[in-house]
From TrEMBL:
Protein purpose: In the presence of manganese, represses expression of mntH and mntS. Up-regulates expression of mntP.
InterPro entries reported for this sequence: DtxR_MntR_Metal-Reg (IPR050536), Fe_dep_repressor (IPR001367), Fe_dep_repressor_sf (IPR036421), HTH_DTXR (IPR022687), Iron_dep_repressor (IPR022689), WH-like_DNA-bd_sf (IPR036388), WH_DNA-bd_sf (IPR036390)
An MF annotation (GO) of this entry: DNA binding
Protein name: Transcriptional regulator MntR
The species this protein was found in: Rhodomicrobium udaipurense
Domain HTH dtxR-type: 29-90
Quaternary state and interactors: Homodimer.
Lineage of origin: Bacteria, Pseudomonadati, Pseudomonadota, Alphaproteobacteria, Hyphomicrobiales
This protein's encoding gene: mntR
Similarity remark: Belongs to the DtxR/MntR family.
Amino acid sequence: MTSQNTNCNPLIDADLQSASFRETRRAHRLEIVEDYVELIDDLIAARGEARQVDIAERLGVAQPTVAKMLKRLIEEGFVVQQPYRGVFLTALGKNLASEARERHRVVEAFLLALGISPETARRDAEGIEHHVSAETLEVFRDFTARRTP
Protein backbone atom coordinates (compact mmCIF):
# COMPACT_ATOMS: atom_id res chain seq x y z
CA MET A 1 0.00 0.00 0.00
CA THR A 2 1.45 3.36 -1.02
CA SER A 3 0.80 6.43 1.06
CA GLN A 4 0.74 9.71 -0.79
CA ASN A 5 0.40 13.05 0.95
CA THR A 6 -1.31 15.40 -1.46
CA ASN A 7 -1.23 18.29 1.05
CA CYS A 8 2.56 18.39 1.13
CA ASN A 9 4.45 20.92 -0.97
CA PRO A 10 6.91 19.44 -3.46
CA LEU A 11 10.56 19.49 -2.45
CA ILE A 12 12.47 22.57 -3.48
CA ASP A 13 15.80 22.36 -5.26
CA ALA A 14 18.41 20.76 -2.98
CA ASP A 15 20.95 23.54 -3.58
CA LEU A 16 18.41 26.21 -2.63
CA GLN A 17 17.34 24.31 0.45
CA SER A 18 20.89 23.67 1.65
CA ALA A 19 21.75 27.35 1.09
CA SER A 20 18.78 28.32 3.25
CA PHE A 21 19.84 25.99 6.03
CA ARG A 22 23.45 27.24 5.84
CA GLU A 23 22.23 30.84 6.15
CA THR A 24 20.07 29.95 9.15
CA ARG A 25 23.00 28.24 10.89
CA ARG A 26 25.21 31.27 10.19
CA ALA A 27 22.56 33.58 11.65
CA HIS A 28 22.30 31.41 14.78
CA ARG A 29 26.06 31.58 15.32
CA LEU A 30 26.08 35.36 14.89
CA GLU A 31 22.96 35.88 17.04
CA ILE A 32 24.75 35.36 20.35
CA VAL A 33 27.67 37.54 19.29
CA GLU A 34 25.27 40.34 18.35
CA ASP A 35 23.38 40.03 21.64
CA TYR A 36 26.63 40.33 23.60
CA VAL A 37 28.02 43.32 21.70
CA GLU A 38 24.68 45.15 21.90
CA LEU A 39 24.50 44.57 25.64
CA ILE A 40 28.14 45.56 26.14
CA ASP A 41 27.48 48.76 24.18
CA ASP A 42 24.40 49.51 26.33
CA LEU A 43 26.33 48.91 29.57
CA ILE A 44 29.19 51.13 28.44
CA ALA A 45 26.75 53.90 27.55
CA ALA A 46 25.01 53.62 30.92
CA ARG A 47 27.94 52.84 33.24
CA GLY A 48 31.15 53.64 31.38
CA GLU A 49 32.18 50.00 31.17
CA ALA A 50 30.72 46.51 30.87
CA ARG A 51 31.67 44.17 33.69
CA GLN A 52 31.41 40.41 33.38
CA VAL A 53 29.08 40.21 36.38
CA ASP A 54 26.70 42.77 34.82
CA ILE A 55 26.67 40.94 31.49
CA ALA A 56 25.85 37.66 33.24
CA GLU A 57 23.06 39.29 35.24
CA ARG A 58 21.47 40.94 32.19
CA LEU A 59 21.64 37.81 30.05
CA GLY A 60 20.55 35.51 32.86
CA VAL A 61 23.56 33.24 32.48
CA ALA A 62 26.43 32.15 34.73
CA GLN A 63 29.67 34.13 34.81
CA PRO A 64 31.72 31.20 33.41
CA THR A 65 29.41 31.25 30.37
CA VAL A 66 30.12 34.96 29.92
CA ALA A 67 33.87 34.40 30.38
CA LYS A 68 33.87 31.77 27.63
CA MET A 69 31.94 34.05 25.27
CA LEU A 70 34.16 37.04 26.04
CA LYS A 71 37.18 34.94 25.11
CA ARG A 72 35.54 34.23 21.76
CA LEU A 73 34.66 37.91 21.26
CA ILE A 74 38.25 38.90 22.01
CA GLU A 75 39.59 36.30 19.55
CA GLU A 76 37.20 37.54 16.86
CA GLY A 77 38.20 41.17 17.44
CA PHE A 78 34.90 42.51 18.79
CA VAL A 79 36.03 43.40 22.33
CA VAL A 80 39.07 44.09 24.45
CA GLN A 81 39.30 43.35 28.13
CA GLN A 82 41.37 45.53 30.42
CA PRO A 83 42.85 44.22 33.69
CA TYR A 84 40.87 45.42 36.73
CA ARG A 85 38.40 47.08 34.37
CA GLY A 86 35.55 45.88 32.23
CA VAL A 87 35.09 44.90 28.65
CA PHE A 88 35.17 47.47 25.85
CA LEU A 89 34.11 47.26 22.22
CA THR A 90 36.58 47.60 19.39
CA ALA A 91 35.58 49.55 16.28
CA LEU A 92 34.44 46.22 14.79
CA GLY A 93 32.32 45.52 17.88
CA LYS A 94 30.79 49.00 17.87
CA ASN A 95 29.88 48.61 14.20
CA LEU A 96 28.25 45.21 14.79
CA ALA A 97 26.31 46.55 17.80
CA SER A 98 25.09 49.51 15.75
CA GLU A 99 23.98 47.30 12.85
CA ALA A 100 22.15 44.89 15.16
CA ARG A 101 20.46 47.73 17.03
CA GLU A 102 19.28 49.29 13.75
CA ARG A 103 17.86 45.96 12.52
CA HIS A 104 16.07 45.58 15.85
CA ARG A 105 14.66 49.11 15.58
CA VAL A 106 13.35 48.52 12.04
CA VAL A 107 11.81 45.13 12.87
CA GLU A 108 10.18 46.44 16.04
CA ALA A 109 8.77 49.48 14.21
CA PHE A 110 7.37 47.18 11.53
CA LEU A 111 5.69 44.93 14.10
CA LEU A 112 4.24 47.96 15.90
CA ALA A 113 2.90 49.26 12.57
CA LEU A 114 1.10 45.94 12.16
CA GLY A 115 -0.62 46.49 15.51
CA ILE A 116 1.47 44.13 17.63
CA SER A 117 1.61 45.18 21.30
CA PRO A 118 4.81 47.01 22.31
CA GLU A 119 5.97 44.24 24.68
CA THR A 120 5.41 41.49 22.11
CA ALA A 121 6.96 43.58 19.32
CA ARG A 122 10.09 44.18 21.44
CA ARG A 123 10.40 40.50 22.35
CA ASP A 124 9.71 39.20 18.82
CA ALA A 125 12.05 41.74 17.23
CA GLU A 126 14.83 40.37 19.45
CA GLY A 127 14.63 37.06 17.60
CA ILE A 128 13.68 38.23 14.13
CA GLU A 129 16.41 40.89 13.90
CA HIS A 130 19.09 38.21 13.69
CA HIS A 131 17.47 36.29 10.83
CA VAL A 132 15.96 38.95 8.61
CA SER A 133 17.58 39.45 5.21
CA ALA A 134 18.67 42.85 3.94
CA GLU A 135 15.92 42.67 1.30
CA THR A 136 13.19 41.96 3.85
CA LEU A 137 14.55 44.59 6.22
CA GLU A 138 14.35 47.20 3.47
CA VAL A 139 10.71 46.25 2.79
CA PHE A 140 9.99 46.57 6.54
CA ARG A 141 11.68 49.99 6.55
CA ASP A 142 9.71 51.19 3.49
CA PHE A 143 6.41 49.86 4.86
CA THR A 144 6.95 51.62 8.19
CA ALA A 145 8.00 54.88 6.51
CA ARG A 146 4.83 54.89 4.38
CA ARG A 147 2.67 54.39 7.49
CA THR A 148 4.33 57.17 9.50
CA PRO A 149 2.55 60.51 9.13
